[in-house]
């Protein structure tokens, strides 16, 4: 399912990224075509193409002329590093801000996280 809080082409790109990270799309394997994505997700093919091109521009996908788009070698490491770099700003900063508003100390947060394992 696509995240409707984001532009569709970004949600398409993130869905493909998730598939790469979870092994659905291994490195050097093909990803669904623009038209396949458009039909499956019920979106405009131009939107699907924009999402795929975003990943190609980032070096996550490579275009093989006449064949399609494939997961680039090293894509998993590249995606993990980018998501790790973004993790603090995306998740930890808002978490710490909300915890401060609620009077939750950092050690309490750690205890909460440990109970979720």
Describe the model.
With 117 residues, this protein is mainly alpha-helical. It is built from five helices and two strands. The chain has a two-stranded antiparallel sheet with strand order 1-2. Strand 1 and strand 2 form a beta hairpin. Helix 1 (8-21) packs across helix 3 and helix 2 (34-41) packs across helix 3 (45-57). The longest helix is centred in the C-terminal third of the chain and has 28 residues, at 75-102. The two termini are 26 Å apart. InterPro entries: Tscrpt_reg_HTH_GntR, WH-like_DNA-bd_sf, WH_DNA-bd_sf. This is GntR family transcriptional regulator.
Q: Can you give the mean pLDDT?
A: 95
Major pleated sheet: 2 strands, antiparallel
Here the CATH topology of the largest domain equals Arc Repressor Mutant, subunit A
Helix content: 55-70%
In total, the number of strands is 2
CATH architecture of the largest domain: Orthogonal Bundle
Whole-angstrom Rg: 18 Å
CATH level 1 class label of the largest domain = Mainly Alpha
Widest beta sheet: strand line-up: 1-2
Amino- and carboxy-terminal Cα gap: 26 Å
């Amino acid at each position: 399912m696509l995240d409707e809080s984001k532009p569709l082409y970004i949600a398409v790109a993130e869905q493909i990224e998730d598939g790469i990270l979870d092994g659905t799309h291994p490195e050097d394997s093909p990803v669904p075509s623009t038209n396949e994505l458009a039909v499956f997700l019920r979106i405009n093919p131009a939107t699907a193409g924009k999402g795929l091109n975003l990943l190609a521009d980032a070096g996550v996908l490579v275009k093989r002329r006449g064949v399609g788009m494939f997961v680039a070698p090293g894509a998993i490491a590249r995606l993990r590093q980018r998501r790790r770099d973004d993790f603090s700003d995306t998740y930890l900063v808002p978490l710490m801000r909300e915890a401060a508003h609620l009077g939750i100390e950092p050690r309490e947060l750690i205890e909460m996280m440990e109970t979720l394992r």
